[in-house]
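Onboarding guide, step 5: your first structure request.
Type a short instruction followed by the sequence, for example:

Predict the 3D structure of this protein.
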Amino acid sequence: MIVDIDALKAALPERARLLGLDLGEKTIGLALSDTTLMVATPMVTLARGKFSKDAEKIEKIVAEQTVGGLVIGLPLNMDGTDGPSAQAARAFARNFSARAVALPILLWDERLSTAAVTRTLLDADASRKRRGEVVDKMAAAYILQGVLERLRRI
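The system replies with structure tokens like these:
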């Protein structure tokens, strides 16, 4: 079920983690929160394939890591409208929601998250190859950390 942030907080079981997803065209960056919902940690980058295979990999992580909800980055245009990437993220959320019974899914505005992470990696003098390896999972952590900070204020 796709929810807003208040419903996400209400639906989370105690000590459950959140899994953040940064959906790219070729990869999916994943980040995982701790059980106190304080810190988001970059986890892994998955190569994208068919939706069913991607969903199976994510469902396995959900089961292994005691995940109580998903946070999917929503790449809105700068004016707040949906472009093709945002529409694809919404479709992914709808399709995953149809598979994952009772797992709340929050779509979270991720404008400029990849740019912020890339800037951080450039400041750290990371090579182009290294940036390519970690940017998606770090963007997922950046998105998830924003949600965790917001959850603490409600």
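Each response can be followed by summary notes, for example: The two ends are 20 Å apart (CA to CA).
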